[in-house]
Amino acid sequence: MVVIENVSKVFKSGKENLTAVDNVSLTVRRGEIFAIIGYSGAGKSTLVRLINGLESVSEGTLTVAGHRISGQKESALREARQNIGMIFQQFNLMNSRTIAGNIEFPLKVAGWDKAKRRARVQEMLEFVGLGDRAKYYPDQLSGGQKQRVGIARALATSPSLLLADESTSALDPETTQEVLGLLKKVNDELGITVVVITHEMDVVSSIADRVAVMEKGKVVEMGNVYDVFSNPQTDVARRFVSTTVKQAPNAFEAAELKRRHRGYLVNIEITEGNTGIGKVLSYLGNRGVHFNIVQGGLETLQGKSYGNLTLELLGDITSLDAVVAELATVTTVKEVRS
């Protein structure tokens, strides 16, 4: 669906150049929800503007649904963009037009006749749950309703690719989940490929199939969402994971835990690949080891759990050493050291 090969984007500012996207290569598969996550300045929003041709590629090649985007003239890009829908953080609705008028606008541009436009507008309103809001104006709607209109407008011309650039950043948590549910519906029921640009871990964990992590214009980590966030390989990915799941204690935390707990402290990593939390705790109980959970957390992604638990084990230190050594054969376990 989207093939990006060695793409860079350099902005010229006086005598200096700013590399916003730096030699990025990735492929978005047809029919998936692909997330691009990164902190402010990572280059993710520039990358999405390259995908829809709003910015020109400095180096490399970029194609969408077989249409080359990189190096094309505006006339060719207009045709390619008809296959790409876009929704934005600030909705970008026209306040002088009704909700129906906003959704109808791209259909007019595409040359649809009036009867087909009206039928399509109503179809899209029903799809996003706003069938009774056709004659309302944007300032009469809530933020979540405005984003639903934005989604309906983006879908009106039946694109095969939907780009969502920070589309939930202006919404409260409950409304965010409603909009994410709608994006999932777009993907499931219409078969549209969705690319989500975000700095929010919850957005990725809620709906994405795969994720690319960006930092300083580069893709530093990429893969299945569960694999990337249950076993992050880069500092930036670990920072994102730490916003939802407590990580293994750092040196300062370890010292504080040792001050407060006199038992044998170990950190256990829980992933689908080793063993579940229930098995770990049953394992300790069956060997007569008493324990307290003193820190940690678990998260579920794509139906699988991951996380870290710090346990205080109580009992004879020699026996505990043996239990920990045996436990290390079935899961990742490390003594907590300050």
UniProtKB/TrEMBL annotation:
<dbReference type="InterPro" id="IPR050086">
    <property type="entry name" value="MetN_ABC_transporter-like"/>
</dbReference>
<dbReference type="InterPro" id="IPR027417">
    <property type="entry name" value="P-loop_NTPase"/>
</dbReference>
<dbReference type="InterPro" id="IPR018449">
    <property type="entry name" value="NIL_domain"/>
</dbReference>
<dbReference type="Pfam" id="PF00005">
    <property type="entry name" value="ABC_tran"/>
</dbReference>
<keyword id="KW-1003">Cell membrane</keyword>
<keyword id="KW-0472">Membrane</keyword>
<keyword id="KW-1278">Translocase</keyword>
<dbReference type="Pfam" id="PF09383">
    <property type="entry name" value="NIL"/>
</dbReference>
<dbReference type="InterPro" id="IPR017871">
    <property type="entry name" value="ABC_transporter-like_CS"/>
</dbReference>
<dbReference type="GO" id="GO:0005524">
    <property type="term" value="F:ATP binding"/>
</dbReference>
<keyword id="KW-0547">Nucleotide-binding</keyword>
<dbReference type="InterPro" id="IPR041701">
    <property type="entry name" value="MetN_ABC"/>
</dbReference>
<comment type="similarity">
    <text>Belongs to the ABC transporter superfamily.</text>
</comment>
<keyword id="KW-0029">Amino-acid transport</keyword>
<feature type="domain" description="ABC transporter">
    <location>
        <begin position="2"/>
        <end position="241"/>
    </location>
</feature>
<comment type="function">
    <text>Part of the ABC transporter FtsEX involved in cellular division. Has ATPase activity.</text>
</comment>
<comment type="subunit">
    <text>Homodimer. Forms a membrane-associated complex with FtsX.</text>
</comment>
<dbReference type="GO" id="GO:0006865">
    <property type="term" value="P:amino acid transport"/>
</dbReference>
<dbReference type="InterPro" id="IPR003593">
    <property type="entry name" value="AAA+_ATPase"/>
</dbReference>
<keyword id="KW-0067">ATP-binding</keyword>
<protein>
    <submittedName>
        <fullName>Methionine ABC transporter ATP-binding protein</fullName>
    </submittedName>
</protein>
<keyword id="KW-0813">Transport</keyword>
<dbReference type="GO" id="GO:0016887">
    <property type="term" value="F:ATP hydrolysis activity"/>
</dbReference>
<dbReference type="InterPro" id="IPR045865">
    <property type="entry name" value="ACT-like_dom_sf"/>
</dbReference>
<dbReference type="InterPro" id="IPR003439">
    <property type="entry name" value="ABC_transporter-like_ATP-bd"/>
</dbReference>
<dbReference type="GO" id="GO:0005886">
    <property type="term" value="C:plasma membrane"/>
</dbReference>
